[in-house]
Amino acid sequence: MSAEGLSVHNLREIIRLYAQGLSGRAIGRSLLKNARMRQQACIEDLRFGGERGLTKAMLKPLAGARWVTAHENVIISGATGVGKSYVACALGNQACREGHTVMYRRARRLFDELMTARADGSAQKLLAKLARANVLIIDDFGTESLDVRERSDLLEIVEDRYQVGSTVFTSQRDPSEWHGVIGDETIGTRSVTGSSTTGTASNWADHLSGRHTMA
Predict the structure, then answer these.
(1) pLDDT at residue 191 above 60?
(2) Which residue, of 3, 58, 92, 193, is most buried by count of CB atoms within 10 Å of its CB?
């Protein structure tokens, strides 16, 4: 585990864990537990070919954690059952082993949590937690259209993380179709680019900074 590329928040957390007598491997396990990922998956166990269509060439830029320190984003799209969530969790596992903080949320649960947080006054605390994570995995995005509040929440999350964190999306829909899910062309463009860059809703995914697409 190297300190290179780790945020101040991460270094403080790792120092705290070392102070508790944890080894580097144990720290990775602690970060993995806190990530609360859907599946126990490892990069080393990924199978190539078959329905998943995953190739070693596709995975090579993501096999280490440099994409995390470079604040690059990942979009994994494909049909139901091809293993999108497994690949996303494998990337999250690798990031944890490299000392990065990871948060995993299914899209529906994420928006429900934010709705509850707004009701009890803890929304800003939750948004700050989402912004701090080195890797935020949003699983099953695009299964249903977003309402006005959810569009605003997505915009805030991605803009807070722009060039400070990496976001991994999994979706059954091709990124070119996401504007229909988001429901507003302007917000759709800004949400995925993480900036105010303009562009048509049909090509906004091409503007995603540091984007790796696996489809």
Answers:
(1) no
(2) 92
